[in-house]
Amino acid sequence: MNEAKIWIRTEDLVEEVQQYILSLFEEDEEYAGNIRVVVYNPNSKKSDNISHIYDVSQMAVNVLKEHYGDLNIKVTGQNKEGNPKSLDCIADSLEKIVNVLERLDDTLGCINTRLRIVDNLADDLAECVVDSPGGKRFCIAGSVTAYEG
User: Fold this and answer.
1) Over 70: is that where the pLDDT of 79 sits?
2) Contact 21, 29 (CB under 8 A)
3) What's phi and psi for 136, nearest 5 deg?
4) Is the pLDDT of residue 101 over 70?
5) At CA 64, angle to CA 51 and CA 59, rounded to 5?
């Protein structure tokens, strides 16, 4: 069973975080949910699990991000083996996929342009192929330069 957790990185006391969550619950009951809250204090490098009474919903996660800052909130889940897996990494992965697809689209556009140029050159060079008793020959009459006029 997956157990989602929200980690809040703050120097606030656990009691202050609990009070803030209770104020959210009083504002709207939909802020209550099943995401377990863990408070991490970077100064003491200590984390505290808050009681299940303070479990929040996904809607509350967005409010907590506004209050504590996006960089101080991390939502995780646990897979069946019990290893924490970041749910935010899914969004990061999708963003990376979008970036790769955009670069691929640009590259394919360049390839398309070059193929059109080659196609136009092939039409021009087709006029240089002539029939001869030994088969087809490629003939160029005149001077060949690198100058395009």
Assistant:
1) no
2) no
3) -85, 145
4) yes
5) 85
